[in-house]
């Protein structure tokens, strides 16, 4: 028996190991973790009464500079809930105003974009698309996985089914039935077609945003761009400072270093 025959026989005896290795690798990729997290949140949202809450998922919408992708939208007479999913484990550190949050697993630490700021872009995109009062739009961030918040987070940042309590806590009727139907129709007609090309185009856009944000200065409160301004009056007249581009809704300012 030559070497090639020996190797072939050995491969035939352990063939089942290769699919296991491949499956193990796939389940550790960010793509699968994101997909699995969205699937779990979708199951959780199904607990909401269908006659009162309408669910939309995986919505890609065009923006002025590319696209934005929203994991889930829940539309009801109590408002429109924009849901961002994070499938993570370990300890989570972050506050509403921080640009970056931290994930810590034993001695390993990594940073990720503040999901509240991330979801703010989704909220503003929907505000423009739907032409409704921003007070009827609610941002919700849902963490799936074995994670723990180690700092105080806002009430709209929850673990798993905690998002249901937050959504149900809004009991004031802000929209009538016709407005609810119009919102769903506008989202459905405004979204980009689902498919590989849409997802790939969005991934390219996200990479460009990440690259740009590494150099851009962002507002620590709302996540908008900071722009260089000059004081026009007062004792600081003529001096330059960083001001939030979302002024007057956001009045964050920073000294120029």
UniProtKB/TrEMBL annotation:
- Entry-linked InterPro entries: NERD, Topo_IA_Znf
- Database matches in SUPFAM superfamilies: Zinc beta-ribbon
Pfam families, per database record: NERD (PF08378), Zn_ribbon_Top1 (PF01396)
Organism in which the protein naturally occurs:
Shewanella metallivivens
Q: Which residues cross the membrane?
A: 6-26
Keywords attached to this Swiss-Prot or TrEMBL record, sorted alphabetically, are: Membrane, Transmembrane, Transmembrane helix
Keyword Transmembrane carried by entry? yes
Protein's recorded name: NERD domain-containing protein
Span of domain NERD? 33-149
